[in-house]
Fold this sequence. Notes:
Oligomer: single chain
Shape: extended
Largest sheet: 3 strands, mixed
Number of helices: 1
Structural class: alpha+beta
Number of strands: 3
Order of helices and strands: HEEE
Amino acid sequence: MSRAKWKGPYVSDKLFLTVKKIKSRPSHYEKEIFTDSRNSTILPNFVGYIFNVHNGKQFIKVKISENMIGKKLGDFSPTRKKFSFKKKKLK
């Protein structure tokens, strides 16, 4: 089920305040933001920032662009690796 429209998009309070605090600095686009809030929605004022999103094991860099607005941060940091069998050498 999707979130009700009257509630608006979900964004973690800590994440929103961090972006707001960084935005007040003169060189605000150079700062990377570390977060583990994968369920937060990307807002238009996040465009241009670099988020390090935690996937359960490591942080993955995600540079926010205009095409990502309205999607979740977790959509851009996969939690599973692609599995492939190793080939044996033929003798």
